[in-house]
Amino acid sequence: MDLRPDLDDWLSLLRTPTLGAATLRALLARHGSAADVRAALRRPDCILAAPARAWTEAPDRARLAADRLWLQQPGHRLLCCDEADFPPQLQAGAGAPIALFVAGDAALLLRPQVAVVGARAATPAGLALASRFAAALATAGLTVASGLAEGVDAAAHRAALKHAGGTLAVVGTGADRVYPRHHRELAATIAARGAVVSPFVPASPPLAAHFPQRNRVLAGLALGVLVIEAGVRSGARITARAAVDLDREVFALPGAIGNPLARGCHALIREGATLVEDPAEVIAALTPAARALGAELRSRLDAEPAPAATPGIADAAATVALLDALGHVPAALDELCARTGAGSAALAAELALLELDGRVAQLAGGRWQRVG
Description:
Blueprint: H1 7-14, H2 21-31, H3 34-41, H4 50-57, H5 61-71, E1 76-80, E2 99-104, E3 113-118, H6 124-139, E4 143-146, H7 152-161, E5 167-170, H8 184-193, E6 195-198, H9 210-221, E7 224-228, H10 235-245, E8 249-252, H11 263-270, E9 274-275, H12 279-301, H13 316-326, E10 331-332, H14 333-340, H15 344-356, E11 360-362, E12 367-370
Parallel strand pairs: 3-4, 3-7, 4-5, 5-6, 7-8, 8-9
Antiparallel strand pairs: 1-2, 2-6, 10-12, 11-12
Helix pairs in contact: 1-3, 2-3, 6-7, 6-12, 7-8, 9-10, 12-15
């Protein structure tokens, strides 16, 4: 694949110690490009902490070469905030990442997502509910996002992989690592049929400090967060609180009062989370947000934004052209890009809306087909 010409500048900035995402966003806004930011940091009058100054003067070129080598592998990508297909739901807000490392289909990040999270030591009933809800959400065209952890996360990923909406894993390590290690096969399947996403540079270990940031990215990508079994103090509740801060929907399943893993969900419901008992309730609540996300994507990615009076579809002529290109034989996104000449991000956004309108459906393997 073609790598962006300023890749080395981006990789160097992302590895500069003590420079967080907020600082880098401010520097990019001031200087305009990653290359210009690096040049500014190398100026003698630039005030930097000692670790950042040391890296700026003598970066670890072997480490940067390893990063570039990982990105040269098929399906791997560094998705930066200055690119048109960077997820718009992550462009604003405190703690928003400046870049994401992706193994898999980066276009999946533009689809409407719901995060399904819960206890690592979930009960058999909780695991069954995670599978049932994830399967129904993915069948409805929502992409199920989770954190690749034990318990509810793994059950949700596995169930979603069997359905059209698919799944993506937001991880607290580098995208080249798997935690826990025995999820290597699951992670490889997700990368092949969905996407593994990380805000951390390759080779990053599973540090405790990484997981709150991972949870915030997971909540930020999703239209809503569904919590299935959680302790009062748990990562699932941290994800739910991040969702509230980001003005996302939070849903929680009630449980038996004698189940300690129901207490976190009950606490969330008392705090304002929506009590749900059926996947249809989640789907109905998120459909307006999914349409709004699609409209925002079209306004960013299409050459001509949709007329205000046109519901659901950005441009009737463009939609007809896309459906004609799709024909009556299932086709992959890259095939549709070749047939229409449009970019993958724009087509992914349009296909997501057409799916919500019931005019196309996504099949296993990322192929699309017309409905009716």
